Amino acid sequence: MTLEEIEQGKAASLAEIAAADDAATVEKLRVKYVGRNGSIPALIKGMKDVPKDERPAFGKAVQAWRAAVEAALAEKGAGAKAAGPVAAVDATLPGRWPAQGVEHPLSRVIADAARIFGKLGFTVADGPDIENPFNNFTALNTPPHHPSQDRSDTFWLAADALLRTQTSPVQIRTMVAAKKPPVRVICPGRTYRRDTTDATHSANFHQIEGLYVDTKPVSLADLKSVLAYFAKEMMGNDGAGVRFRPHFFPFTEPSVEVDFTCHVCKGKGCNVCKQSGWIEIAGAGMVDPRVFGHVGWNPDEVSGYAFGFGVERIAMIKYGIPDIRWLYENDLRFLRQLA
Ligand code: DAH
Question: Are residue 34 and residue 135 in the same domain, yes or no?
Fold first, then answer.
């Protein structure tokens, strides 16, 4: 083939490719010109027969033809087609995993609490988010003038309906439904307060209530041992102890605030526990006789303890989460870190 014939062949091939208007034709032309047995590779193979002094010019012309044809084919989308189904599956690529969800830290704390208290014979009780004032306040010995009933603290929906401010009303529901002791329940759930949101407050948060009432005498020491077991199990701290500090709640007498041994420094004192070695976790106490009166139980015949703690607070302490809002944003980058 002379240089002139190469130029003619090139022009003809480019015209053919330009005229091709379907993928099959483009593919046919690709095979015809640049396929393994195509005319251009044949020319390249035949180069050895070209006289030595003509070879450089010949080679250059053939390569230019090939480049022009390949460019024209690529423009017609031949690359993708030519690659075909075989190249589309690259078996050497790492596999793609379907996205997998992780358990939300709040769900995990609730599930862990149910498991831990479950081993001690507690079952899980439930109550509605919309409560009546009797269950949320009156039966819990909280009089109408108490500040927690104020419009600025409680979401009132009507005179006889509110968003529960605590899970304690489930105590009342449980005792009313059981009709007689013993009852031994925990009650996880949503609670609502008119709090302005910041790093440690949210208008909607979660609590877990606990209640044990029996006809045999129940003591503060029983409460302490149960909470000490819970502290060890929940915080993964074998050496955890609990400390009671006197406090006041309307529905318990005596009332205490409960501290766990700091799980970070094991009680030595660190930044997390503000050098005290203790972390405040829960409110608790012996059920007030007047609460039993409200559910029709004779306080001379029954006794019990109750406790309540914040799920967010436990999650934040346990997983080192500095801002409560992170628990509600569902940012997968955050949630995956806790997987
Ligand atoms: N309901 C209390 C609160 O929201 C927490 C609490 C304290 C619950 C003492 C109890 C208890 O059952 O005995 O702050």
Answer: no
The dihedrals phi and psi of 309, each to the nearest 5 degrees, come to: -145, 165
Question: Please, are residues 263 and 314 in contact by the beta-carbon 8 Å criterion?
Answer: no
Report how far ligand 1's centroid is from the alpha carbon of 48 (Å).
Answer: 95
Peptide bond into 128 cis (omega under 30): no
Rounded to the nearest angstrom, the distance between the alpha carbon of 85 and the centre of ligand 1 is: 66
| pLDDT tens digits, 230-242 | 999 999 988 888 9
- Number of domains into which the chain is organized: 2
Task: Using the mean position of ligand 1's atoms as its centre, give its distance from the Cα of residue 151 in Å.
Answer: 20
* Whether residues 139 and 283 fall in one domain: yes
**Among the atoms of ligand 1, which is closest to the Cα of residue 171?**
12
Model confidence over 40-91: pLDDT tens digits? 998 888 888 888 898 899 889 889 999 998 888 888 887 554 445 556 778 8
Q: Are 43 and 1 in contact (CB under 8 A)?
A: yes
**How would you classify the pairing of strands 204-214 and 242-249?**
unpaired
* Ligand 1 neighbour 306 (Cβ under 6 A): yes
The residue out of 36, 51, 82 marking a domain boundary is: 82
* Best mutation site among 164, 212, 226, 251 for ligand 1 pocket (most ligand atoms within 8 Å of CB): 251
Residues whose CB falls within 8 Å of the CB of residue 153, separated by 6 or more in sequence, listed in order? 147, 165, 193, 194
pTM of the prediction?
A: 0.73
Q: What are phi and psi of 306, to 5 degrees?
A: -140, 155
Let me know if residue 210 belongs to a domain.
Answer: yes
Give the residue numbers spanning the domain of 293. Answer: 105-337
- Which of 303, 259, 296 has its CA nearest to residue 139? 296
Are residue 13 and residue 161 in the same domain, yes or no?
no
